[in-house]
């Protein structure tokens, strides 16, 4: 019996090493297979959801652009394309006619260098009539970053399970080795060990580790629970990044007394028809940029209209001298336009011409508490557009309401009144701005020179 136990103890360590190697191999293999299966399911599910989001975005863009394409309003369509790039975090968006002509195009800076992307298209129809289509491109780089982080987390969890499994196996073998050694010692010296209490030190040391391992396995090794948790985490991050603007918000309508500066680019449609698509889009962008620069300098709010741009002064932010701001912005606009056209003369390109009119009255502002989106509407915008159609290039026309605003007294000098009319619109009392007070003229000249100096190369 003694000889048998000594042989068992001597062979026990060799068996222990072999068993640990086999167990480590099986544990590594099962961990690797589980990680690959879980990673495949998570990636497939999230990529499908990502493509669904891009498809939904394309369908929403098609619905929004439908009335603009029906009215052949390419200017508003181009502005909407740029707003979609900024608000929806898209890489590019393109609107096509039924003959695959590009109606509007916008892209995000640096998007041309991105290779990982998802593309979705949607048809724009009215009943059974095809009006065109829209193509939306969105980068998958945010999704890839999240998936890579998730894969790293899964690997760490698998490694932790593997290490704890080895610790548990080593502890169990150590306990059984001690028990066999104690049994051999008891047989060799039964009298000395008869009244000795059993050595439970190894069980006491093992108990905290076993408890911790059991809690860890119960919490982290259930595959379905882990996959659901990862899906919820990643879906929340992607949805909050792409569809942030889709949450409903409360809105309100407020009345304002304001002035509308209406800017119409004379002959823009004919000018665009003689240009390639990319040059036509660039011309529209530069036209909008000039108006937006003047509006920003004089605290105006730009609204895109069917045949021009309306700059509202006094709404949605109240302004005491709203009409004076509109006249100064109009004078500033013509000076910017002169500088812009001087560059086009050097480039042997056709000149851009403005028709400008100003009208004052009541408007209504529709906005949200977060000021994320605003809309100003009222009859004076339509009347200002009609008055702008009567203006000649280089003129600033004022309606009677605008001329009678108290903030223009002794600051703006006018000619008139004139009786101007067309076949569809009549404005009995119209005035033409002849000059501004010297102080305002000097200020505007300084502003134009400052902007010109900023554009000069260093």
From TrEMBL:
Matching SUPFAM superfamilies: Nucleotide cyclase (SSF55073)
Residue ranges annotated as transmembrane are: 12-35, 154-176
Keyword terms:
Membrane, Transmembrane, Transmembrane helix
Pinpoint the Guanylate cyclase domain residues.
259-388
Name of the protein described by the UniProt record: Guanylate cyclase domain-containing protein
Organism lineage reads as: Bacteria, Pseudomonadati, Pseudomonadota, Gammaproteobacteria, Oceanospirillales
């Amino acid at each position: 019996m003694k000889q048998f136990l000594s042989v068992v103890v001597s062979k026990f360590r060799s068996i222990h090493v072999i068993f640990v190697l086999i167990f480590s191999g099986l544990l590594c293999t099962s961990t690797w297979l589980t990680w690959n299966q879980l990673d495949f399911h998570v990636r497939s599910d999230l990529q499908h959801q990502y493509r669904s989001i891009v498809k939904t975005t394309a369908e929403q863009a098609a619905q929004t652009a439908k009335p603009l394409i029906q009215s052949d309003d390419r200017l508003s369509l181009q502005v909407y394309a740029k707003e979609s790039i900024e608000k929806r975090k898209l890489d590019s968006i393109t609107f096509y006619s039924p003959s695959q002509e590009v109606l509007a195009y916008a892209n995000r800076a640096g998007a041309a260098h991105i290779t990982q992307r998802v593309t979705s298209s949607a048809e724009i129809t009215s009943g059974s009539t095809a009006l065109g289509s829209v193509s939306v491109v969105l980068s998958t780089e945010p999704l890839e970053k999240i998936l890579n982080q998730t894969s790293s987390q899964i690997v760490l969890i698998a490694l932790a399970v593997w290490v704890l499994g080895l610790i548990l196996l080593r502890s169990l073998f150590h306990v059984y080795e001690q028990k066999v050694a104690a049994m051999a010692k008891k047989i060799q010296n039964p009298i000395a060990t008869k009244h000795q209490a059993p050595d439970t030190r190894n069980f006491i040391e093992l108990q905290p580790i076993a408890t911790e391992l059991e809690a860890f396995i119960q919490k982290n090794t259930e595959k379905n629970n882990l996959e659901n948790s990862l899906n919820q985490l990643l879906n929340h991050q992607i949805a909050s990044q792409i569809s942030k603007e889709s949450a409903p918000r409360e809105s309100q309508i407020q009345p304002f007394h304001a002035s509308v500066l209406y800017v119409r680019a004379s002959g823009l449609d004919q000018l665009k028809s003689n240009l390639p698509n990319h040059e036509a889009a660039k011309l529209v962008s530069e036209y909008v940029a000039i108006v937006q620069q003047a509006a920003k300098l004089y605290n105006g709010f730009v609204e895109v209209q069917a045949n021009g741009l309306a700059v509202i002064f006094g709404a949605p932010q109240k302004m005491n001298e709203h009409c004076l701001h509109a006249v100064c912005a109009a004078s500033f606009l013509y000076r910017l336009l002169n500088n812009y056209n001087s560059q086009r003369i050097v480039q042997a390109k056709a000149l851009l011409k403005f028709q400008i009119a100003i009208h004052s009255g009541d408007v209504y502002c529709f906005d949200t508490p977060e000021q994320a989106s605003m809309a100003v509407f009222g009859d004076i915008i339509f009347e200002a557009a009609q008055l702008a159609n009567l203006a000649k290039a280089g003129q600033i026309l004022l309606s009677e309401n605008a001329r009678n605003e108290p903030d223009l007294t002794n600051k703006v000098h006018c000619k008139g009144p004139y009786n101007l009319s067309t076949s569809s619109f009549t404005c009995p009392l119209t005035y033409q701005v002849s000059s501004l007070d010297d102080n305002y003229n000097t200020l505007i000249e300084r502003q134009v020179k400052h902007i010109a100096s900023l554009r000069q190369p260093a």
